[in-house]
Amino acid sequence: MRKLQMKMQEFMKGRYGPDLLSRDMSFLSLGIIILNLFIRNKILYFLGLTLLFISYLRMFSKRFPKRYNENRIYANIRNNFTKRIKRTFKRIKDFPKYKYFKCPNCQKQLRVPRGKKQIVITCPVCRTQFDAKT
Which residues pair with 122 in a beta bridge? Predict the structure, then answer.
């Protein structure tokens, strides 16, 4: 068993290895293949296998800069998407207690307690004051 582990380590030397993009591609391909067990569609099956094949090609690649840039771009897109989702769920959760406004000057999002009637809001970033109904 130790010999096999050593051979695998030697094989992976100089190769890129797993990262966030290849991991997510592997999970997506696994989900597509499992979905295909119920749907029975050849196109879906080949799509799942192709994604799995591409994720393994990325892991075994020796082109570090290219794989690193692909992963960095994907991570930025993924983080922006998850931030938007978290922000939306936070606003839904805060709906009974708070109302959100955007500063007319700097577009900063401001949270104000509900039920205060007509108030003057001061933006903490740019110190712009504006009227709002809560």
Answer: 129
Cβ atoms within 10 A of the Cβ of 123, count?
A: 18
Q: What is the 3-state secondary structure (H, E, C) of 74-127?
A: HHHHHHHHHHHHHHHHHHHHHCCCEEEEECCCCCCEEEEECCCCEEEEECCCCC
Nearby residues of 29 by Cβ (< 8 Å), 6 or more positions away = 48, 49, 50, 51, 52, 55
Looking from the CA of 54 toward its CB, the CA atoms found within 13 Å total 16
Instruction: Please say whether the beta carbons of 119 and 134 come within 8 A.
Output: yes
pTM above 0.85, yes or no: no
- Over residues 11-55, the pLDDT tens digits come to 888 899 899 999 999 999 999 999 999 999 999 999 999 999 999
Cα 129 to Cα 97, 98, 112, distances in angstroms: 22, 19, 13
HSE, side-chain direction, 13 A CA sphere, residue 30: 8
Q: What is the longest distance spanned by two Cα atoms in the chain?
A: 75
- Residue 57 CA to residue 60 CA, distance in Å, equals 5
